[in-house]
Amino acid sequence: MGRRRWLCSVVTGLCLASAMVSATFAAQTAPEAPMSTATHSRPRVLILATGGTIAGKADARSAIGYDAGGVSGQDLIAGVPGLDKLATLHVEQIANIGSQNMNDGVWFALAKRIKAAFAAHEADAVVVTHGTDTMEETAFFLQTVLKSPYPVVVTGAMRPSTAISADGPANLYEAVKVAVAPQAKGRGVMVVLNDTIHAARWVTKVSTTDVQTFHSINAGPIGYVDPASVRFLAPAVQAKAAVPDLSHAEGKLPRVEIIYGHSNMDARQIDHAIEDGARGIVLAGIGDGNASDEALAGLDRAVAKGLLVVRASRVGSGLVNRNVEVSDDTHGYVVSYDLNPQKARILLQVLIAGGVTDVHAVQAAFGQGLY
Fold first, then answer.
1. Per the residue annotation, which of 53, 129, 204, 213 is the catalytic one?
2. Is 99 one of the annotated binding-site residues?
3. Coil, helix or strand for 329?
4. This prediction's pTM
């Protein structure tokens, strides 16, 4: 992963095994200005801007201080030389926030707009600009609820638009380049930054400040991109999962808490989650998703109260396996396999929202992304 050449230094702004889930999102959100559906010589890309560091502006509080979401999506594309030669572009501002403030409402707006654009043949691909802190979660949510052969690429930046050697322009250029590549079709949602293409299921942020902050820990990247080429490392694999029916979710996902495992752990946070009305708990456990006897007893109380419990791991790599140190069959737990706690939370939320609450069906769903 060599150092990229910068295009610009500054810019101005889950098939589920059960038939319980099969319906799709209703297309509700209309574009601000419809894209042409006439015969076109260049691919059409809909860029949906949500803010983040890529749209950030410097702040005087420190030499590296900045405020996310200070530049519009339209200004972002205007600051990338040659971007308009890759595709016919249409930009819409879905939000303009730091990704620490990303929420269910923005997720649902993105999913509905993307589905509407593809259903109406308005776009051949979608690029989402996003902050890096929760980018993997947004990408995984979209991967879980959207099943389309058309590419969706999420990109962002680690340096704000006003920084020296800002990485946003190159990332945006390469995201569009990947989105319009013929071989990108059928690969679902991808994350593109720093010359690297990642699948939404695998990618995670591993550094607080490094430009090369995204890695696919358990799988590796699925390809590489530079201004001259797009290279995928393997053929596209047909997605197995069906789209869950979230028509009754009303733009909000059910409450699922992540409980972080540690030494000398008691069950206080677990009991509080039960009392607070959580529908599920994801344990960010130690090692292979383990926890103290006291914490496991608390999780048993949660299961007895009807909550779904998923064991994930805080470790950062490796899979959480069933029935190793913990007898999941006895306790009625689900394991996350390869999904980290934050992605396990999203999948569990989507399943519960879609009416999938049988522990066996939930476990099957967690294995659908493994090939």
1. 53
2. yes
3. helix
4. 0.86
